[in-house]
Amino acid sequence: MGVNIMFNFAVHGLADEAEARTVLDSIADMVTEEGFQDHEVGMGWSVIDGQHFITGETDYPVGISSFYAWRPRFETDFRERVHALAPAATASIDWNCLDGG
């Protein structure tokens, strides 16, 4: 059964602009591989007080089939991609299940 979800994510502790861009490209590839369309997940990188970070979020609720089986795999892939390119970074995802789940 599918559920409607929204999520946001963040990656902090990136070394520099090059690392931020590389990690962002990898996350963008993952999002595309998962079947999300360009308009469904907005993301980008920024620098505040010399600290590079990435943020992203769904722009509106998206339907995910078998969410509770899909979620752990998505989270693992997300963290593995980040840590493969930026071992010192911290990655997090926050979920909002709109169907009461």
Describe this structure in words.
The chain has 101 residues and is α+β, with helices and mostly antiparallel strands. Helices cover 36% and strands 41% of the residues. It has two helices and five strands, in the order βαβββαβ. It has helices at 17-33, 67-85; strands spanning 2-14, 41-48, 51-58, 62-65, 90-97. α1 packs antiparallel against α2 (67-85). The radius of gyration is 14 Å and the shape is elongated. It starts with a strand and ends with a strand. The model has no long low-confidence stretch (mean pLDDT 93).
Give a brief outline of the structure.
This protein has helices spanning 17-33, 67-85, and strands at 2-14, 41-48, 51-58, 62-65, 90-97. It is built from 2 helices and 5 strands. Strands 1, 2, 3, 4 and 5 form a 5-stranded antiparallel sheet that branches.
Which structural traits does this protein have?
5 strands, alpha+beta, 2 helices, elongated, 101 residues, five-stranded antiparallel β-sheet
